[in-house]
Specification:
The complex is a heterodimer.
Chain A lengths: L4 E5 L2 E5 L1 H20 L2 H27 L10 E3 L4 E7 L6 E9 L4 E9 L1 E8 L5 E12 L6 E16 L7 H11 L5 E4 L22 E4 L11 E4 L9 H18 L8 E4 L2 E4 L3 H13 L13 E3 L6
Helix pairs in contact in A: 1-2
Chain B lengths: L5 H22 L6 H17 L7 H20 L4 H18 L4 H21 L6 H19 L13 H4 L2 H15 L24 E3 L11 E7 L4 H8 L3 E7 L1 E2 L3 E3 L5 E5 L5 E2 L6 E7 L9 E2 L2 E5 L5 E4 L4 E3 L7 E7 L24 H10 L6 H13 L2 E2 L10 H8 L1 E2 L1 H14 L4 E8 L2 E3 L4 E5 L3 E9 L2 E5 L15 H19 L3 H17 L1 H24 L4 H13 L21 H15 L8 H11 L1
Parallel strand pairs in B: 14-15
Antiparallel strand pairs in B: 1-5, 2-8, 2-18, 3-9, 3-16, 4-5, 6-11, 7-10, 8-13, 10-13, 11-12, 16-19, 17-18, 19-20
Helix pairs in contact in B: 1-2, 1-4, 1-5, 1-6, 2-4, 3-4, 4-5, 5-6, 10-13, 11-13, 12-13, 17-19
The chains are: A alpha+beta, B alpha+beta.
């Protein structure tokens, strides 16, 4: 019985929780006794229990109606092929302390999460996208048993949300780093998140946390002058007959480079993706670069510009 | 880590409070053993004060429950009333869950047991005080459920909503309760689950009454309340003032008291039927008859009928109206009463027992002969005897000689109404006039606050009915000084309290389908009268709401506004990631922490549409103010 969720209105479904089923059972018994006997005190008790349940229902519906857009709470990008834990922020339009379960569907994937409202709200959850691309989330399912835990109220709504599923980063300048490490000793300059392909010797084992088992790797100074502009050119041409995985690998390398540069980006640093060029020092251009990386398709033209580091699958170049 | 978190303690206290409201509501019932409820209260208060330092495991607590079940079985076998045994069992269960360890299941049990105690009390009490634990239950149940909802949540417990905010909901819940209570139909298939009350013990309304047992105490216990129906209060007051309420007629005198003559039943009426004793129609009054240990219905002088009786009843040839069974609850009866104060029409002529002089003491006959010397008619004889006795002294404490009660009264000429009525009846019989005594009530007490009459046990009275000029006539020889006495200590307070009680009985316990129909009809009339202004007002409200909502939506900040902010942040050494909420970025260079936090608060208000709408120009101005 507690699994039953009745559609009561377009976009709304209502079910009961386990304590709610007990409560409604008691309420039904009270009304049966009241109608049978005409005892007005039982009418009063039945009205009281009903009013409590109705008030709880109204409060729950009101909470769901007031739930703000969840878009700002979303990360802009996630990594394809990996279950991503989300930790974002959102400010609710209510002072209620409540929990909302969120299911946000796209065409072939789903974000499941929990919105915790307590004055300020935080969306936590996870998301999995099989492949790289621009994920358009649209159908949202919000459910809660707020405020008494009697009802399970579900609201369906259309809300657009955009997530970029980025390629899996592919480390590609470890060999250079290793050489520098041999030259400069074990002094590392910073930490970054572990990505698949990183050498295990670079993992900072003492920083591995038992809570989420996240790994960090040491980053060695590349001894590059800080005032020197960075330029990465990515050739989006795919040789005929080449495996598409190689194209994804190419983009993974570009993404790896992007993340490496992120903490020290400055105006004038450039990322060239085929025919498009992005000044990574500019916030808007940086966002555009992320979107372009997520949505990139093989191109026929050579990358524009010259100099810098060129990533290409074309053997002759 | 502390053994009991503050939230656990809060849940412990709130669920205990739910249980306590249940126990308090049940304790209002006279059927409940005070030992059981006071024990549960003691345990609960101990737990409230000390917290769950002492608790039984679920298994141990369940043993208490099972032991209670067996014990109640034994109680039943020993002859305890099932109602009492049932409440004993509920209270033993309450005891078990009160002392049990505060697990989530225990909290649920407490809430359920608390609820069932409140529901059981709805059947076992009709006290107006029931509204207090009921109202407390609504509030505490709400808070306890909120507390339990926020517990054991992944990521830490949810904060408890502020009570000041939540209490605003209670008037709405109260209003909804009221609407549901009024609107729902009443079916009234049977009466077993009606609120019960213990039957009040009385004397004087049984088949044998010993002299001295009746109407000898100034007992303020309320036996009946009478209120007007569709009648002005002043009219009602004048109509019902100083009426005799006829209960039981006693015809056989046995030397020490009176016995009922087994008169044949004349009429019987089923539940819901109206009983009319005359073709005339009079004014309607409502009588609230408390549950008492006798089935007799007190009929006021001039009673013309009982409208739609709540229980089956019958009437015998002596004009005694009674229920088939004495009801165990308060009964509201509508009666039609005429303004003339006369006895019931159609009472059978006297039986032989009502002229029996075999038990009339010789001294009484001698005194009667001397008193009525010169009388020319039965009426005059009766009046002379009555007048003579009304000059004697009224004394509730006058000793009664059990062997010769009437003679000793005749000698002392001090006594209470029963002796006066007995002496008058026997004197009339000695003069050849058939007579009997009637036990009932006289007058009553006017309640100025509520505008109704209240008839207490202290208004119990005996008088005489004599067969004069071919019909039964009432004669009351008791001195009028009798009615100066009262057993009520705080009349002003009592008046208010009784008025509150009658309001409870009238508008809650006895609220009927007809009342519902009237109220809905009145509401419809009002609605029709004010339809245009109400609809216009609602339309205006709807427009205002729409405009407000529209304005709020305009306030939501979009991507362009974010870009202005992000560029400014870039300049101040902060690279905000696209998904990163402002609250989680570091404080920009050259900005004070307090100013930044204030800005973040204001930004978030803007972001979610509560603070009006900042244009990009305004954002830039705010940001310049920060720098």
């Amino acid at each position: 019985m507690v699994r039953i969720e009745a559609p009561v209105f377009p976009g709304w479904r209502i079910g009961v929780t386990r304590p709610g089923a007990l409560y409604l059972g008691a309420l039904a018994g009270v009304w049966a006794a009241a109608f049978y006997s005409g005892n007005n005190l039982l009418y009063l008790c039945g009205a009281m229990l009903f009013a409590l349940a109705a008030a709880a229902l109204v409060r729950g519906v009101r909470l769901l109606r007031q739930t703000p857009e969840l878009g700002p709470a979303l990360p802009e990008y996630v990594e394809a092929g990996r279950r991503e834990a989300l930790q974002g922020g959102v400010i609710p339009l209510t002072d209620d302390a409540a929990l909302l379960d969120v299911k946000w569907h796209s065409a072939d994937s789903m974000l499941t999460g929990r919105l915790r409202l307590a004055g300020r709200g935080t969306l936590t959850g996870n998301f999995f996208s099989e492949s790289r691309g621009c994920v358009s989330l649209s159908r949202q399912e919000l459910s809660t048993s707020f405020p008494l835990g009697l009802w399970r109220i579900i609201r369906f709504r259309q809300q657009q949300g955009k997530l970029f599923a980025m390629p899996r980063p592919v480390p590609w300048h470890d060999a250079q780093d290793e050489l520098r490490r041999l030259e400069q000793g074990d002094e590392w300059q910073g930490l970054r998140e572990y990505v698949s392909g990183d050498a295990l010797s670079r993992v900072h084992w003492r920083k591995v946390t038992s809570v989420d088992a996240s790994w960090t790797v040491k980053r060695f100074d590349r001894s590059q002058p800080h005032d020197q502009l960075q330029l990465l050119r990515v050739d989006l041409r795919l040789p005929s007959g080449a495996d598409e995985k190689r194209f994804e690998e190419l983009l993974g390398k570009a993404w790896f480079w992007f993340q490496e540069q992120l903490p020290r980006l400055k105006d004038g640093d450039l990322l060239v993706l085929g025919q498009a060029s992005f000044n990574l020092g500019d916030y808007q251009a940086r966002r555009a670069a992320i979107e372009a990386l997520a949505c990139a398709q093989p191109d026929l033209a050579a990358p524009i510009g010259s100099g810098g580091i060129l990533l290409s699958l074309m053997g002759s170049e | 880590m502390p053994l009991f978190t503050s939230r656990l303690l809060m849940a412990e206290r709130l669920t205990l409070a739910v249980l306590i409201t249940g126990v308090v509501s049940l304790a209002l019932s006279d059927f409940v053993s005070s030992f059981y409820w006071s024990t549960v209260m003691l345990i609960s208060v101990f737990r409230l004060v000390r917290g769950p330092v002492f608790a039984l495991s679920e298994m141990q607590a369940s043993f208490i429950g099972w032991a209670g079940f067996i014990w109640v079985g034994i109680e039943l076998a020993l002859g305890r009333a099932w109602v009492v045994a049932f409440t004993d069992f509920l209270l033993i269960l309450a005891m078990a869950v009160a002392i049990e360890a505060p697990t989530p299941r225990n909290h649920l049990h407490r809430m359920l047991v608390g609820m069932f105690l409140v529901l059981a009390a709805a059947v076992l009490t009709d006290s107006v005080l029931y509204i207090l634990p009921l109202a407390a239950f609504v509030w505490i149940f709400w808070r306890a459920s909120q507390c339990l909802y926020g517990m054991n949540v992944p990521g830490g417990e949810l904060s408890m909503p502020e009570w000041r905010r939540e209490i605003r909901l209670m008037p709405w819940i109260g209003l909804l309760v009221l609407v549901i209570f009024v609107v729902l139909p009443r079916f009234d298939f049977q009466t077993y689950l009606k609120p019960t009350q213990p039957r009040k013990e009385t004397s004087g309304f049984s088949s044998q009454v010993r002299l001295g047992d009746f109407a000898r105490e100034l007992d303020p216990t309320v036996m009946m309340r009478v209120e007007p129906v569709n009648m002005a209060v002043d009219v009602f007051r004048r109509l019902m003032i100083g009426r005799y309420w006829r209960g039981m007629a006693l015809s056989i005198y046995n030397g020490r008291g009176w016995e009922r003559y087994p008169a044949e039943d004349k009429h019987a009426w089923k539940r819901g039927m109206s009983a009319y004793f005359s073709d005339q129609r009079g004014r309607e009054v409502a009588l609230y008859r408390e549950a008492s240990d006798h089935p007799y219905i007190m009929l006021p002088e001039g009673a013309l009928g009982v409208v739609r009786s709540a229980e089956a009843m019958k009437m015998d040839k002596a004009g005694m109206l009674r229920f088939i069974r004495a009801p165990a609850r308060r009964i509201r009866m509508l009666m039609e009463v005429e303004s003339k104060r006369r006895l019931l029409p159609g009472m059978a002529p006297p039986a032989a027992a009502e002229l029996d002089t075999s038990r009339v003491p010789a001294a009484v006959a001698r005194w009667a002969n001397a008193t009525v010397a010169g009388s020319s008619s039965s009426r005059q004889t009766a009046e002379m005897l009555t007048d003579e006795m009304q000059g004697w002294s009224y004394d509730l404490n006058a000793p009664i000689d059990a062997a010769r009660p009437v003679e000793s009264f005749l000698n002392s000429r001090r006594g209470h109404c029963e002796l006066y009525a007995t002496l008058l009846a026997l004197s009339l019989r000695s003069q050849g006039i058939p007579a009997r005594i009637v036990n009932g009530y006289f007058g009553g007490e006017w309640n100025e606050v509520g505008g109704f009459y209240l008839i207490r046990q202290q208004h119990a009275h005996s008088w005489v009915e004599a067969w004069v000029d071919g019909s039964w006539q009432r004669y009351d020889s008791t001195p009028s000084s009798r009615w100066q006495l009262t057993g009520v200590y705080f009349p002003a307070l009592d008046e208010v309290w009784e008025s509150v009680k009658l309001t409870w009985y009238r508008y809650v316990l006895e609220f009927q389908d007809s009342d519902r129909g009237e109220m809905i009809q009145q509401a419809m009339v009002l609605l029709k009268r004010y339809l245009v202004p109400v609809v216009s007002g609602l339309l205006l409200l709807a427009v205002a709401w729409f405009l407000l909502r529209h304005r709020q939506q305009r306030g939501v900040l979009g991507r362009r506004e974010w870009t202005v902010l992000d560029r400014w942040l870039d300049k101040h050494g902060v690279n905000r990631l696209p998904h990163q909420p402002l609250r989680f970025v570091s404080i920009p260079e050259g900005v004070g922490e307090a100013a930044w936090n204030g800005f973040v608060d204001a930004w978030e208000q803007q972001l979610y549409g509560r603070g009006g709408s900042w244009s990009r120009m305004q954002i830039r101005r705010h940001l310049r103010a920060l720098s």
